[in-house]
Design goal:
- The chain is 38% helix and 17% strand.
- The chain is of the alpha/beta class and 396 residues long.
- It has a seven-stranded parallel beta sheet, sandwiched between helices. The chain has a six-stranded parallel beta sheet with strand order 12-11-10-13-14-15, with helices on both faces.
- The longest helix is centred in the first third of the chain and has 16 residues.
């Protein structure tokens, strides 16, 4: 057993001891991506602070967090003694997974018995997950096929943004976690943004206010880091791409590259090797802010394209490793022909799809797709979830 595993087990043991501590009624604990101040938990936290005068806000914040929380937030390091203490004594816990502790273990195993008993009576753990799934997750991932697994989680409620994800969550959790059709708080900004807010966000993200934006946000590949963005940058002719966008949609364009957190350092160090015109898309932590100001999204298997549907703007799925990713690495829930955006495997086809993009036709396709998955997003998700939390606080 290495030191990291030993430390994790020691925190687990301490967590069991801290279950004996009393819960503080108005203490609320947040975790987003293991230590960032971002995503749906951030939107929930900020809205709750507007409504609650006497609540205590605790956030797990790691060194990878680039946007520090406001002064009213107490920050604790993930997997620290303080984090276990505050989590164990919080009335409400908010995370963007399927519980602050969740996963699968062999049914009936000692591991399952230990991990499935971390839930503390009197706490309420609400979970938002972090995206609509194109690539397979949980039980459906290749490494879990055929195994006798049982799901464990500390979650009391999981939020869903469409019927498709509700059904998938039920499958993933083996029906053990209640689901509310409240939508995704991080997407509210896409519905409610105005021109003034767009300008403010562009300034914050260091993007020229007068330029149109193509945002490149590739998926992380654990087995091939180059395919997490560097390979695509090498293949793409950025000047040709920007010229094509200008010719098709008008205006002057900039290329913004948002690297996945898992490869951020190596990507940021090398992006200018390919073009000095590539701007960083990692100045702000919140992907929703980038989506809200972007005019075109270029991605592959990222759930960001589901969120981008609500902008009505063009998106292109550039997937050079489509066959390998779909058949070997992860697998997909939708075929390319079922998706609402053009899917291409090479750059020349990408340029042609941009030239041939039909806005009216694509808008109809997007509407049909949203209807097919049973979308419930309407820009009021944060309010709905905050009400669930405040009602829980009022009844205890």
């Amino acid at each position: 057993m290495n030191l990291q595993s030993l430390y994790s087990y020691s925190m687990l043991a301490i967590g069991y001891v801290f279950k004996l501590l009393p819960i503080k009624k108005n203490r609320i604990y947040f975790n987003s991506f293991g230590g960032q101040y971002t995503d749906s938990p951030r939107k929930i936290s900020e809205k709750l602070h507007q409504k609650l005068n006497n609540a205590e806000f605790i956030w797990e914040i790691s060194d990878k967090c680039r946007e520090l929380p406001p002064d009213y937030v107490r920050c604790v390091k993930p997997q620290s003694l303080l984090s276990v203490f505050y989590r164990s004594t919080s009335h409400i816990i908010v995370d963007n997974y399927m519980g602050w502790c969740y996963g699968y273990a062999e049914r009936g195993s000692a591991r399952y018995k230990i991990l499935s008993r971390q839930k503390k009576k009197g706490q309420f753990n609400i979970c938002t997950w972090h995206g609509t799934a194109l690539k397979k997750i949980g039980l459906d991932q290749p490494e879990n096929k055929g195994r006798n697994l049982s799901f464990y989680s500390t979650a009391d409620l999981l939020t869903a943004n469409c019927v498709y994800m509700r059904d998938l969550y039920n499958h993933m959790s083996q029906g053990k976690v209640p689901i509310t059709m409240s939508g995704t708080p991080r997407n509210d900004i896409i519905f409610n943004i105005d021109d003034s807010t767009k300008v403010q966000l562009k300034r914050k993200l260091k993007i020229p206010e007068e330029k149109k934006i193509i945002l490149f946000a590739p998926t992380f590949r654990a087995g091939d880091l180059a395919m997490s963005g560097l390979y695509q940058l090498e293949k793409l002719d950025i000047d040709r791409l920007l010229s094509g966008l200008s010719r098709k949609f008008g205006g002057e364009w900039v290329f913004v590259f948002r690297a996945h957190d898992s490869v951020l350092l190596s990507m940021e160090n090398q992006r200018n090797k390919y073009s000095s015109d590539i701007l960083s898309g990692n100045i702000g932590d919140d992907m929703s802010e980038y989506l809200a100001v972007s005019d075109v999204l270029l991605t592959d298997y990222s759930s960001s394209f589901f969120d981008f549907l609500f902008t009505g703007n063009p998106c292109f799925l550039y997937c050079p490793d489509y066959d390998h990713y779909g058949q070997v690495e992860r697998g997909f829930y939708f075929t390319a022909s079922e998706l609402p955006y053009p899917t291409v495997t090479d750059e020349d086809t990408l340029y042609k799809e941009i030239d041939n993009y039909n806005t009216d036709k694509r808008r109809d396709i997007i509407e049909s797709f949203l209807k097919k998955i049973g979308n419930v997003e309407d820009g009021s998700s944060t309010e709905k979830i905050v009400k669930i939390i405040t009602d829980e606080l009022d009844t205890k």
